[in-house]
Amino acid sequence: MTEPRFFPPPQPLDLQALVALTGARRARGPEDASITGVAPIGWAGPSDAASLSGSEDAEAVGCSLAGVVFASAEFEELAPEGAVALITPEPAKALAQVAAALFPSALRPQPVFGEGVAPGAVIHPEAKLENDVTVDPGAVVGPRAEIGCGAVICANAVIGADVRLGRGSVVGPGATIVHALIGDRVIIRQGARIGQDGVALASGSGGHAQVPQTGRAIVQDDVQIGANATVDRGADRDTVIGEGAKIDNLVRIGHNVTVGRHCVVLARSQVPPGATLDDFEVVGNLEAAT
């Protein structure tokens, strides 16, 4: 695979660790295999793991040098000769679990100054920070904000007054959060905007009057919000992003929206004001249905 120069060198995972991590069953291949990377099956080398779904190019599979291949039982026989074949009903998910174990820092924005509150961070004296919080230079934490244990606030991010940021959550560089309650283990990537007001107008013959938006943005546990995505706060009720939802880059979530648990909203999509997405719904890259 391409050299992962921006991430710490991974510790090797042996076959026992791979089975314990993924629940896969070893079908064949050497018992002493270990891997330090993941790659597409046509690019993988002896120290890499790959997955096999049956849709790959036959030539690429046939000449693959992958050390470990995750495959479903249906495609077990297609695994390259010499590779360890690990059988699982969800090969792609197993490979993702392995990649996360090898490169955990690739899963979320990282502070550039290491752990702790760096010089140049601005923390209001009325803000409350639990233990092991990291705040990079240029970041601002406003009055009465509460930051949970293990949270990370990267450079130039702004946490507004009275915001709650849950334990283990990460706010990427340049992101802003206002009028919002953020759960635990939430990942908010670079440049995202959470809790600002959207455009709510009362129109009449004399023009358009801005309607004050007094709701909140509620982001539940284990949500991910992509770079430069926007989540408007509610107008007369809350905007809610449900547990485990994944919001891609450049998504716009309008005011009074409810995004269900474990929904996926793909890049450049718009969820219009007042819309509701059911649990596990997937929205494409145009305007979401109301």
Automatic annotation (TrEMBL):
This is UDP-3-O-[3-hydroxymyristoyl] glucosamine N-acyltransferase. GO terms for cellular component: membrane. Its EC number is 2.3.1.191. Residues 32-100 form the UDP-3-O-[3-hydroxymyristoyl] glucosamine N-acyltransferase non-repeat region domain. It is an enzyme of class 2 (transferase). GO terms for biological process: lipid A biosynthetic process. The keyword Lipid biosynthesis applies. Keywords: Acyltransferase, Lipid A biosynthesis, Lipid biosynthesis, Lipid metabolism, Repeat, Transferase. The lineage of its organism: Bacteria, Pseudomonadati, Pseudomonadota, Alphaproteobacteria, Hyphomicrobiales. InterPro entries: Hexapep, LpxD, Trimer_LpxA-like_sf, UDP_GlcNAc_AcTrfase_non-rep. Signal peptide: none annotated. One of its GO terms (molecular function) is UDP-3-O-[(3R)-3-hydroxyacyl]-glucosamine N-acyltransferase activity.
